[in-house]
Request: fold
Amino acid sequence: MPADLIVVVADGRVVEAGPHAQLMRNRGLYAELYDLQASAYE
Reply:
């Protein structure tokens, strides 16, 4: 089951929050880490 809300914490602070699609569109830390992990499966 996918998460309704993803919260990204960096250095003890919330830096991003939202659903997957929005976080990917924002191209922030979440997208960077997601792409890094996904590249291992290519």
Q: What stands out?
A: Residues 16 and 28 are 8 Å apart (CA to CA). The mean pLDDT is 96.
